[in-house]
Design a protein that fits this description.
The chain is α+β, with helices and mostly antiparallel strands. It is built from seven helices and 13 strands.
Length: about 250
């Protein structure tokens, strides 16, 4: 398998794996705009040259868009190998490249947000455990901060207090999201419009800078649904799932 890094020079012409239509698509456009800024902050997006979901995206933890304290680590934003790409060792290739890069930079290790059991949009905890990742910290309701230290004396990374017990003082349905995931640009407006049509209290809050992300009220900042102040899910809602959620909770 041949892999390629995204750069500011090739970003426009390269596909981004999780959303592979043309640059006029809102999902692609929003993610590429987000990536363009993060590349300046040390983000690496390494992907298969073939079209499909086979990539790893990581960044210095100091610049990560999540509420963690992990100075000196690299943080994996997203790590996805699926479909026909599974079972060929490509995940090992991508993770090894990340580890090699972290060591070359003199980093203390690698962090990644996962869960006790496999959840949508989160890396597989069983695979990460097999590769040597350990649990550094937990956050409600079901998030784990995993880490792979290169030195047993490396400081333990942890979630910030704001993410430990996620809540908001806003009422009704509230979605916090970033453009770090391309699917939010499509589905957040769709659900927002549906809620408006049906008179369902709904508010969307775009996390549009690193400082907001690092002080967000939940561990996984790409997308988080709250209802009446309580955290509900990190799964990106479409029309059907939103209406099912409304029926269940109201």
């Amino acid at each position: 398998m041949e892999y390629r890094k995204l750069t500011l020079d090739n970003l426009e012409k390269e596909h981004i794996c999780c959303a592979i239509s043309n640059n006029k698509d809102i999902q692609v456009a929003s993610k590429k705009a987000w990536l363009a800024e993060r590349l300046k902050e040390g983000l690496v997006f390494l992907k298969s040259v073939e079209r499909g979901k086979c990539f790893i995206e990581y960044i210095p933890a100091e610049n990560a868009w999540c509420p963690i304290e992990a100075e000196g680590y690299l943080h994996i934003n997203c790590f996805w190998v699926s479909g026909s790409f599974k079972g060929h060792g490509y995940a090992n290739d991508l993770l090894s490249a990340c580890i090699d890069d972290a060591k070359a930079q003199g980093r203390r290790g690698i962090t990644v947000i996962s869960s006790p059991k496999k959840m949508p949009f989160l890396s597989d905890p069983k695979y990460l455990a097999y590769k040597g990742f350990r649990i550094a910290d937990t956050a409600e309701p079901n998030f784990t901060l995993l880490y792979l230290p290169f030195d047993d004396n490396a400081p333990l990374p942890h979630f910030k207090d704001c993410a430990k017990h996620p809540k908001t003082d806003k009422q009704g349905f509230v979605v916090y999201y970033t453009h770090g995931c391309p699917f939010t640009a499509k589905y957040v407006p769709i659900v927002e419009n549906l809620a408006k049509e049906k008179g369902i209290p709904f508010e969307s809050i775009l996390i549009d800078n690193k400082e907001k992300a690092q002080n967000a009220p939940m561990a996984w900042t790409n997308y988080g649904v709250f209802y009446q102040g309580k955290y509900i899910s990190n799964e990106i809602l479409n029309e059907k799932r939103f209406l099912e959620l409304v029926k269940r909770l109201t």
